[in-house]
Design a protein that fits this description.
CATH architecture of the largest domain in chain A: 3-Layer(aba) Sandwich
Largest sheet of chain A: 6 strands, antiparallel
Oligomer: heterodimer
Structural class of chain A: alpha/beta
CATH class of the largest domain in chain A: Alpha Beta
Order of helices and strands of chain B: EHEEEEEEE
CATH topology of the largest domain in chain A: Rossmann fold
Strand content of chain A: 25-35%
Number of helices of chain A: 5
Largest interface: A-B, 24 and 23 residues
Helix content of chain A: 10-25%
Number of domains of chain A: 2
Order of helices and strands of chain A: EEEEEHEEHEHEHEHE
Helix content of chain B: under 10%
Strand content of chain B: 25-35%
Strand order of the largest sheet of chain B: 1-4-5-6-7
Number of domains of chain B: 1
Radius of gyration of chain A: 18 Å
Number of helices of chain B: 1
Strand order of the largest sheet of chain A: 4-3-6-1-2-5
Radius of gyration of chain B: 13 Å
Number of strands of chain B: 8
Shape of chain B: globular
Bound molecules: flavin-adenine dinucleotide, zinc ion
Distance between the termini of chain B: 40 Å
Shape of chain A: globular
Chain lengths: 246, 96
């Protein structure tokens, strides 16, 4: 049986800046349940006059991190919810959440690989849960991450990603920068396209399980390219974040 | 894409997975892996893979193959309406 998901008040225990535009929020939950990497929580804000609004946020932490939940949120300047989380919330505050939610965009070690993860901007968040879970399980199945950012300091979890792949040769990272690349950068410096996907997927010979996450238009482009490349659609999973950050 | 309709702005589109919380509240179980058969073109897709438009009043779920509306969810203070004329059926795996 699946438990009914109910709203509960989590307590913010830590807020950590990841990049100039993103922060990670650790919440302690009274009714924590283990999630599947890729799932999300809904966050609900209630104004003093009773007006409510809610948004979805992917779980960044691995299910092995028992009792708490980490969310990573990009601040959308004219947004309703993300500026509140960034500018108003402080450790000790409560935040209403429900989850874990979703069975479609999930990957667990048991599903196997090889694994191709494709992220744009904050779309890295649910993919990071998959990589943290993979590391926590000491899985050795091949995994490749193709991650598009506009600028070098926009790369979320950069040092943790680099550490993970330094320790584990089955995990390979491919970064691309669309606006400005780091000094001396020899890697990709354009939007993700079919040629780039073809290069990154090559050793997997189209058998990879593919997870694509980020702003809707990026996910559209990547998903269409993968289908044109002949990847079986049942191996492709997408998560569109909406207009965010595009 | 053909058949772009007034409520369809593809930049704002998300996946059916994004409304998994609402669906789970209505059905009492995860619905994202339930398969919906489109009444228009007979395409079958997991609900998590439908096109979801959440920025209007209520939610519209559309067929990823032909863009026809499969289901609409509207919430009022006293009730939830689920209209699913666009689906021939929903197929749910038996729960153990
Ligand atoms: C399943 C899922 C998981 C997600 N996970 C994450 C995550 O891990 N991290 C993360 O940072 N985000 C995530 N998102 C995105 C998140 O849910 C919010 O959409 C995001 O934080 C913006 O919310 P907001 O209230 O700040 O902005 P909003 O007030 O919703 O506005 C966002 C932007 O869209 C524009 N916009 C809004 N409505 C319209 C409209 N009708 N027409 C044109 N433009 C419009 C606004 O101008 C603004 O620029 C996820 C989304 C989904 C669906
Ligand atoms: Zn159809």
């Amino acid at each position: 049986m699946q438990p009914l998901i109910e709203w509960q008040a989590g307590t913010v225990t830590e807020i950590r800046p990841e990049t100039p535009q993103t922060k990670s929020f650790t919440l302690a939950l009274p009714k924590w349940t283990a999630h599947r990497p890729g799932q999300h929580y809904d966050v609900r804000l209630t104004a003093p006059d009773g007006y409510q609004t809610q948004r979805s946020y992917s779980i960044a932490s691995a299910p092995e991190q028992v009792g708490e939940l980490e969310l990573t949120v990009e601040r959308i300047p004219d947004g309703e919810v993300s500026p509140y989380l960034h500018d108003v919330l402080v450790p000790g505050d409560q935040l209403e959440v429900r989850g874990p939610i979703g069975g479609y965009f999930v990957w667990e070690v048991g599903l196997g690989g090889p694994l191709l993860l494709v992220a744009g901007g904050s779309g890295i968040v649910p993919l990071m849960a998959m990589l943290r879970h993979r590391a926590a399980q000491r899985a050795t199945l091949p995994a490749r991450l193709l991650y598009s950012s506009r600028v070098p300091d926009g790369v979320i979890y950069r040092s943790e990603l680099v550490q993970l792949s330094d320790r584990d040769h089955a995990l390979e990272l491919f970064f691309t920068f669309t606006r400005q690349a780091p000094e001396g950068w020899t890697g990709y410096r354009r939007r993700i396209d079919e040629a780039m996907l073809t290069e990154v997927i090559r050793p997997f010979e189209e058998r990879a399980r593919v997870y694509v996450c980020g702003p809707t238009l990026l996910v559209e482009t990547v998903a269409n390219a993968l289908v044109r490349m002949g990847l079986p659609t049942e191996l492709i999973r997408t998560e569109r974040f909406g207009p965010t950050g595009s | 894409m053909e058949r772009i309709e007034a409520d369809m702005n593809t930049a704002l589109m998300v996946d059916g997975n994004a409304v998994a919380g609402e669906l789970q509240r209505i059905f009492g179980r995860d619905m994202t892996m339930a398969v919906a058969r489109c009444a228009g073109c007979a395409n079958e897709a997991e609900m998590g893979a439908l096109m979801a438009f959440t920025r209007g009043p209520g939610v519209v779920l559309r067929c990823p193959a032909c863009q026809a509306a499969i289901a609409r969810i509207v919430e009022t203070p006293s009730a939830i309406y689920l209209e699913a004329r666009g689906a021939t059926y929903l197929r749910l795996a038996a729960q153990s």
